[in-house]
């Protein structure tokens, strides 16, 4: 996983600064600046992608999201990773559903400045089985957020992303974006005791770092969220923590040192029912059940 960053003091410093201080930026690999360039085509389109609707957690990144069927009066949802939950990493096969939470999120505007604090009422859903996702339900509705801050939620794409698509990973924690393309898909991505299905593999330009966990992956052409950033192979090790490996249908293992990954989000859209309630029994819902 892209390790969650701990320490509320560090988070306060970052969120209050407007931009990440130079000392915080120093761990980033070469090319992981405020606008990490992918190929020229990706970079040109990525200019339209900004921070509006993204959030910073105490240890990760996230975004306010909506399904196509979400209504303005529905309680808003925040998307992040399962491994970013304050309750800790869920074990293989574990699913968190409707767990009370009062977690806070700093909402960012287009320029990446914090404009307000949103608060959760519960973890509506969270898991690290098959995918690495958390959905927090907020105490505010979409209409209230837009009225107070002039910011709309990011919409979740309903279709599987395509290889070659230009994408931008938008980190609210670091206030940085990473632009590249979808290189392809890992049939199975195995990291330590967890296994994820049909993961998005980035081209090498997206050199995401710790704290970018939970960042929305935005399709540059549509502006919709197609995945949630979650991990990368840091040291070239095989299938260990922070060193995921790809496993194909025949069981062959491939290690791609320095390559990063995300989990697709189109398959969660059918699980979002009336009033933004997570209903794992809805037709087409592919999220694991408890």
How much beta, percentage-wise?
35-45%
Can you count the beta strands? Answer: 17
The DSSP helix count reads 4
Would you list the SSEs in sequence order as H and E? Answer: HHEHEEEEEEEHEEEEEEEEE
Widest sheet, order of strands: 10-11-12-17-14-13
**Mass-distribution shape:** globular
> Major sheet: size, sense and barrel closure?
6 strands, antiparallel, barrel
Q: Which spans have pLDDT < 50 for at least 5 consecutive residues? A: 7-46
Q: How do you describe this structure in short?
A:
The protein is mostly beta strands and 290 residues long. It has helices at residues 8-17, 22-25, 40-46, 142-149; strands at residues 35-36, 54-56, 61-66, 75-80, 95-100, 104-108, 114-127, 133-141, 154-155, 166-171, 176-191, 194-202, 216-219, 225-232, 245-247, 253-254, 260-264. Residues 7-46 have low confidence and may be disordered.
Overall description:
The protein has 290 residues and is mainly beta. The chain is 10% helix and 37% strand. It contains 4 helices and 17 strands. A 6-stranded antiparallel β-barrel has the order 10-11-12-17-14-13. The longest helix has 10 residues, at 8-17. The radius of gyration is 17 Å and the shape is globular. 50% of the residues are buried. Mean pLDDT is 88; it is low at 7-46.
